Amino acid sequence: MGRDTVIGLVGKPSSGKSTTLNALTDANAKVRSFPFTTIDPNKASGYLEVECACSRFGKQELCKPNYGYCRNGTRGVPIILLDVAGLVPNAHLGRGLGNKFLSDLTEADCLIHIVDVSGTTDADGKETRGYDPLQDIEWFQDEIFRWILGNLTEKWPSVVRRHVATKSTTLETLLLQLGGYYANKELVGKALDRMPNLPPLQEWDTEMVEAVVKSFMAVKFPTILALNKMDHPDADKNVSKIMLKFPEMKCVLTSSLTEVFLRKLAALNYIKYELGTEFIDTAEDLPDAGLRPLDEKLAEKIEEIRDLVLYRFGSTGLVNLLQTAAEMMQLVPVYPVRNISTFGGLSGQHVFRDCVLVKKHSPVISVARKIMGDVTIAAIEGVDKKRVGEEDTVDVKKNDILSFRLVPGNH
Hints:
The radius of gyration is 24 Å and the shape is flat. Helix content is 35%, strand content 17%. Among the domains are: 73 residues, Orthogonal Bundle (Helicase, Ruva Protein, domain 3), CATH 1.10.8.470; 58 residues, no CATH class; 71 residues. The two termini are 15 Å apart. Strands 1, 2, 3, 4, 5, 6 and 7 form a seven-stranded mixed β-sheet that branches. A four-stranded mixed β-sheet has the order 11-10-13-12. The chain has a two-stranded antiparallel ribbon with strand order 8-9. The longest helix is centred in the middle third of the chain and has 21 residues. Keywords: GTP-binding, Nucleotide-binding. InterPro entries: Beta-grasp_dom_sf, G_OBG, GTP-bd, P-loop_NTPase, YGR210-like_G4. This is OBG-type G domain-containing protein.
C-alpha cells in the first residue's frame, strides 16, 4: 500500500501558521470522516479542491463522497497536513525543539513555509516593525541544509571507505545515507540526475558534498512560500524583494486571518462565500437567500475585506495554496468505482464515492495497490467499459475513472 501524501506546514511563531492550518482544515461544511486511519496530534486533514469527475457527466446532484465534500462539481479531497512545530534559528544545533522539528519534516513530500510578509514579527515571532522577512526564508533553508550536511559529513570518511570496499554505485551508497529521510531510490536518483558530470564519490571534496545535499533538498523538500498578511501596508515591498531574491521558488500571496473570518461568517449564515474566489454576498446582495442582516460594524468590515483583499488579490489565496502544492507534487485525482456504467457502488444511486490522489503518470497497477493492497486483479475497465492495461498510466482526465475486477475469492 502506498503511503499517503503529506504536506508539511512550517513557520516561525506568529507568522500565521496556526491560522493557515485552521483555514485549510476547516472545510466549512459537514465533512464526512477522514480516510486516514491514524492521525497523529500534529497532523490534520486539509482539503484539496479539484474539478470533480461528476461535472463531466452532469451528475453533480448524485455526487456524495465518502470522504471530503463535493459542491456543484468542486470536490474537496482530503490530504494530510503536518504541523511542524519548533521552527527557530539554529534548530539544527538542537535549539528549541530543533531535532524533533527537523525529523518531523522528513515525512513531508512538500513544504509550505508561511512567511509573515508584513515585517511585524522578528525571527522569534515577537512584535516589531520593519523586520525583513527575507531573513526567515534564508535561515529556514539553511537550517535544513546544515542538518542534512551535518548528518552526512559526520561519518563521511567511513561512508567513502565502505563505498570503495563494496564497489557500490554512487546511487546505492547515497540511498543508504539518505534513505532515513523517507527518500527512495527514485528520489535520490533524481537528485543525482540534476548534477551532470559527477566525479566518482571517493573524489568528492567538501564543495561537491554540499552541492549534492542542495540538490537532494530541492527534490526531497520542494517548498512553496505562503506570503501571509499580504494586505498589510508594508507587505508589497517585502513581496517584491522576496520574488526578486528567490525567482525559482513558488510564491502564493495569502491572508489566512481573512479566510478564517469569512468562513466563520459563512457558517453563521451572515454571508454566502465561494471558497477560493473574490465573491461574497450579503443579505443586501441576495435579499431572498435567507441570510442574516449585518450590523453596521460587520458591513464596514466586509467592505474593507472586499477592497483590501478580495478585489485586489482575487482571493485570500488559501485554496490556491494547496492547489499549488498538488501541482508541485504532480498529484492527480483518480476515482475508483465499482460500477463503470453508473459510476456508483454495488447499490444506491450515489456516484464517485471515492477519490484518491496519485502521482501523475503512475501505472494503473500501482493505483490499484494503493487502494486495495496486494490483491490479484482479473481486469481493469475505464469509461465506456474500455479495457485498461496494468502498465497504462494515469493523468488529468485520462484513465482517472477506473473499475477493478478481482479474481473471485480475492478480497
